[in-house]
Write a structure and sequence with these properties.
138 residues, alpha+beta, globular
Length: 138
């Protein structure tokens, strides 16, 4: 009887340790996405909790700039932001549901333009899209 209790206790302890380890690997959160119109550019400002390492890419047909945030889930209810100005149609936001998750921010463009991604303080990233310039800048 004592050996059976000890075996059950060890099994339960192993489960608790595994659950605790999984909880320690909680993903970062994308808290907010804002679109700010400047005089000659549009900025997509992303605010996240934790440290994210963005992956930036472009896609053609139609033109898009994509920011992937690995290990990040959406904490915001935003899915789309309509822009319709300065060559930017809009912004789409989604999470892939994988483990670990990746959140993707897609900026739909009228045509390819120059852009840069700048990290800011406290989990802020700013993607700046420059109107009228057709070359890519990272």
């Amino acid at each position: 009887m004592r050996k059976q209790l000890l075996t059950k206790f060890e099994s339960l302890l192993a489960v608790v340790v595994m659950v605790g380890a999984a909880g320690a690997q909680t993903p970062n959160q994308l808290d907010r996405v804002n679109v700010v119109r400047g005089t000659d550019d549009i900025r997509v400002e992303m605010k996240s909790s934790g440290t994210v390492t963005p992956k930036l890419s472009t896609l053609d047909s139609p033109a898009r700039v994509v920011v992937d945030l690995p290990g990040t889930v959406m904490a915001t209810g935003q899915r789309r932001i309509a822009v319709g100005a300065d060559g930017v149609k809009g912004v789409r936001i989604g999470t892939d549901g994988q483990t670990p998750p990746t959140t993707r921010i897609v900026v739909d463009l009228d045509q390819a333009c120059t852009y840069d991604l700048t990290p800011g303080p406290a989990g802020k990233l700013v993607l700046t899209l420059h109107e009228g310039a057709a070359a890519k800048v990272n």
